[in-house]
Each structure stands twice: as C-alpha cells, then as structure tokens.
Design brief:
Elements (H helix, E strand, L loop, with lengths): L14 E4 L15 H14 L3 E5 L5 H13 L4 E6 L3 H11 L5 E8 L2 H8 L3 H16 L5 E6 L6 H13 L4 E6 L6 H14 L7 E6 L6 H10 L4 E4 L13 H10 L1 H4 L10 H12 L20 H9 L20 E2 L5 H10 L6 H17 L3 E2 H12 L7 E8 L7 E7 L5 E7 L3 H13 L4 E9 L8 E9 L2 E9 L2 H21 L11
Helix pairs in contact: 1-2, 1-11, 2-3, 5-6, 6-7, 7-8, 14-15, 16-17
Bound molecules: 3-methyl-2-oxobutanoic acid and zinc ion.
Length: 524
C-alpha cells in the first residue's frame, strides 16, 4: 500500500473507465449528437480518464459515426466500443474504434440464469460458446479486448467463473464484473470477487474491473468493495448518469480515492481540478441537472448554511470541509471580459478554458458574447462556458426559435406569439393565452409546430451569482411517449425557456420518429 504521492506504486493505480457516452447515454431523454459527444470526449481526455467507452456502434449509424469520430480525434485515453457477442456487433465496434491509437472492443453476454432463460432464451452451454466465439473473433482484429459477464452479481459464481476462464483463454485482457441491476451489497460483491479469484487464478494475469449501477444507491460503495477485492479498473460515469438510477459516479470515486488515499491506498490519474467543469458540460449537453446536494459536484456540496458550520469554516476550513473546493475546480472564475473585449480576447479566453474555436464557430460565439456583454457588465469564465456549450447544441435542433413576443400583466392572462424555424427550413407562427408567460410561450410553440408536447420537468437556474446572471433553463418533455431533454441559456429567462423547450421538443420528436430506438437496441 502507498500512503502519499511520490511513494505511489503502479499496482495500486486504478484505471478509470468512463462510460458516460455509452451507459450514460442510455438514460431516458438523452440523445447527444456527434459534435456534443466529441466535446465531452475531449473533456474526458483533459480530465485524465484511462478509457472512454464512446458508444455502441451497432446501435445506429449515428452511434457508429460518433464513436469513429472520437477514435479519430481524441488522443490519450483508450477508445472503446461496446458489442454483443455477434460477429456483426464486433465488426461494427472494431470498425468504429480502429482509427484510435489505442482501440478496445468490449463484448458481453449475461451469465445469470434469469437473463439466460428469459431474455436470451438459451442455455448455459450456448452462452459459453458465444463468449468464446466473440472474444476469439475480436482478437483477430486487436489485442485489447474486454469481456463482461452481464448480470454477474445475480449469477451462479461457478458458472460465471467458467465463462470468464473461457474469455481469458481466448485472450480477453480485461474482465469486467457488472452489477447490472444494482442489486448487490458491498460485502456480497467482495465475496463474489474473492471466490472468482479462487476459481479462476488466471484472473491475476488480466485486469479485473467492476461496473456498478445505483438502483439501491450503492454503486460507489460497491465499486469501492470491488477495488478492495482486487479490481484495478472501475467503470463509472460523469454525474453518475446511466441506465435507470445510473452508474457509479466518476467524480465520487475519484475524490473518494483522492481524499482517502492514506487509508485506501489506491490512486487514479484523474486531474481533479477538471471535475466541476466536466460535470457542468455533461449536465448542459444531456439536459440532466445535477441534484443540489449531489456529492462533489452538487451546488450545495461545499455550501455551509448552518451558523455553527459557517463559523467553523471561517476559523479553519477543515472544521467542516473534508475537501478543498478548488481541488475539484470550483470557485476558479478568474477570466472576466466586458463589452469592449474583442474577438482575439474572446478566442484567448476560450483557449485558456480548453475550447479551440475558429472560423464560423468563433464568429457565432463572438456574436452571442456581444449580445450578452451588452446586457451584462462582466462576462465570466462560467458565462462563456455556458454560452459556448449552448452553441454546441444547435446541430441537434430540428426546431429553432425565430422570435417571440409576450404580453404579461397581473391584470389579464398572458398572451404569447412565437415564430419557429421548422426542420424543413420553413417558418411557422403560433399564439396562445396561457396561465403564465412561460406557459403561454410553450403552448404557442406547440401551436406553431403542431406537436402536442407535454412538459414533465422544468427547472430555472442561474449560471453565476448576482442580479445580472445568465439564466439557464432545463426542460424534459414528452411527445407520443418519447422523452426529450434540453437546456437554454440567455440573459432573458423567457428566451432561455423557449430555446430549452425547442431543443427538448426536437429530441423527443426525433426519438418518436425513430420509434424510441435512439440508443441501444431493445435486446440489452
Ligand atoms: O450494466 C451492464 O451490465 C452493462 C454491460 C454492457 C457491461 O452496462
Ligand atoms: Zn451498465
């Protein structure tokens, strides 16, 4: 065990396998376009993750192209594509990641009887055969093959061991043990892994990984149990997004190992100061807000409301803070631009923040910056980040806002009129008298687009503190049973709400046209 930086040894290094763009993208309502996925992947590389699971290439041509673009552009981490056991899946995954300097194919099949009987409707013998054939097929293309026995934590350990042994014999270099439905408890997972090591001594020759879901709120605790049992790769996602209740949260695992390193003795290569920014980027692009009290990245994670706590922190920070907020990249907001700042200053500020913008993208960002700077005295790094991220979303948008007008008064119901650009390039207008000005705008958008969207979630926030802060609105809505999420940023909260609504509408309509099939096929 190592106790301090400098004495660290490689055997205690934990590899961070990020699945934000694969398992995370499976969350209801999330549908990231290629540009958004690339932006997240670049930020994950800055964060220092070891592996990016970039998607499931067989799922759709869009998924394939996004994984391929990440493999071609993003340097540093291993770029991984997910595949079921069929040759077709593995070929798609390989073709999508082959341009990466460090490609990986991750193939999986369930080993629990519940899945084998009811979902796969096959036999244990067949599962062994499929696992063997899948790993062997992938190994024809590349060395770095990962294998997961899905739903392992509910499976018979002896049978899972048999399948894992076969995967190792065929050349799998990483074996990942998923708690697919978030059912395990830490001591059970630890015992399962200990038994697996006994049954498969060859596991010591490969990397052992753990992949936990949060259905019972135990994903991080179970991941830690996995690491304590010997795993040296942990699969996790930013803000813990993922199927159902989500995956283990990357930021919680990274800060747990960082803060408690003297006791746990394990370390990661995560650049912790990039955590807050990565969390904001993922939240904005997915439309999934972070709960205020979320560990590490929630708005209140470092807020002290109680007088006793405030008093303590003012006297000595460590009285009530176990982590310094600057360690996760919070409270660093040094960049300030004003309305006289030019294109060069903007481009330099963006570069300092890691955004390389030029040509049309820089022109658009500059135009948006000027609009904001005219209304707001100081434009900070947080504002710029929100604006640039907001612009990135344009590509996904089928519907965009042309203009809106609202009559609001406490004496009569508010009336809104909107003009919306439709996906076919034409414009349509609509009007509505609603319960409130924002409701009137939403209903007017429904009238203009002819889509009967139902709002299911609406949140307003501010990008920074202060009266002239940019407003940020998040929306989740439903169209014919398909959900869409979107966010919008503006100095005018009604404008931000209209932008968010149109983005969410575009995603939901696209999903309903695709029969809800954006993302992973029904079979996993
Ligand atoms: O949760 C799970 O089992 C998965 C596998 C594909 C690894 O996401
Ligand atoms: Zn999963």
């Amino acid at each position: 065990m190592s106790t301090a930086a400098g004495e660290r040894n490689d055997a205690d290094r934990v590899l961070i396998f990020d699945t934000t763009l694969r398992d995370g993208e499976q969350s209801p309502g999330i549908s990231l376009n290629r540009q958004e996925k690339l932006e997240i992947a670049h930020q994950l590389a800055r964060l220092g993750v070891d592996v990016i699971e970039a998607g499931f290439p067989i799922a759709s041509p869009g998924d394939f192209q996004s994984v391929q673009a990440i493999a071609q552009e993003v340097e540093g981490p291993v770029i991984c594509g997910l595949a079921r056991t069929s040759h077709q899946d593995i070929d798609a995954a390989w073709n999508a990641v082959r341009d990466s300097g460090r490609p990986r194919v991750h193939t999986f099949i369930s080993t629990s009887d519940i899945h084998i009987e009811h979902q796969l409707q096959t036999t244990r013998e067949d599962v062994i055969g499929q696992a063997r054939a899948a790993v062997a097929h992938a190994k024809q293309y590349l060395d770095d093959v990962e294998f997961s026995p899905m739903d392992a934590s509910r499976a018979d350990v002896e049978f899972t061991a048999e399948v894992v042994q076969v995967a190792i014999d065929e050349g799998a270099m990483t074996i990942n043990i998923p708690d697919t439905v978030g059912y395990a408890m830490p001591r059970e997972l630890e015992a399962f892994l200990a038994r697996l090591y006994e049954l498969v001594p060859d596991l010591r020759r490969v990397a052992l990984s753990v992949h936990c879901h949060d259905d019972l709120g135990l994903a991080v605790a179970n991941s830690l149990a996995g690491l304590e049992a010997g795993c040296r790769q942990v699969e996790c996602s930013i803000n813990g997004i993922g199927a159902r209740a989500g995956n283990a949260s990357l930021e919680e695992i990274a800060m747990l190992l960082h803060t408690r390193e003297p006791s746990v003795g394990l370390w990661t290569a995560i650049e912790t100061t990039e955590i807050a920014r990565t969390s904001r980027l993922v939240s904005r692009l997915t439309g999934y807000q972070v709960q205020p009290n979320k560990a590490i990245v929630g708005r209140n994670a470092f807020a002290h409301e109680s007088g006793i706590h405030q008093d303590g922190v003012l006297k000595e920070r460590t009285t009530y803070e176990i982590m310094d907020p600057t360690t996760v990249g919070l409270r660093s907001n040094s960049i300030v631009l004003g309305k006289h700042s030019g294109r060069h200053a903007l481009s330099e500020a963006l570069r300092e923040m890691g955004f390389e913008l030029d040509g049309q993208a820089l022109n658009t960002a500059f135009k948006r910056f000027k609009e904001i700077a005219d209304r707001k005295k100081q434009v900070t790094a947080m504002d710029l980040e929100a604006l640039v991220t907001d612009e990135l979303r344009e590509e996904i948008t089928g519907y965009t806002l042309d203009w809106f007008e609202v009559d609001a008064s406490s004496l009569r119901p508010p009336h809104a009129k909107v003009s919306v650009n439709l996906p076919d390039g034409s414009a349509a207008s609509g009007s509505f008298t609603g319960d409130g000005p924002i409701d009137a705008v939403f209903q007017a958008i429904n009238a203009a687009t002819g889509v009967a969207a139902k709002l299911s979630d609406f949140t307003i926030g501010a990008v920074t503190e202060g009266q002239d802060a940019l407003g940020e609105v998040s929306i989740v809505l439903e169209v014919d049973g398909s959900t869409g999420a979107g966010q919008g940023v503006s100095t005018d909260i009604i404008d931000a709400a209209a932008r968010a609504y149109l983005r969410a509408l575009s995603v939901a309509v696209a999903r309903s046209h695709a029969g809800g099939a954006i993302g992973l096929p029904e079979t996993i």
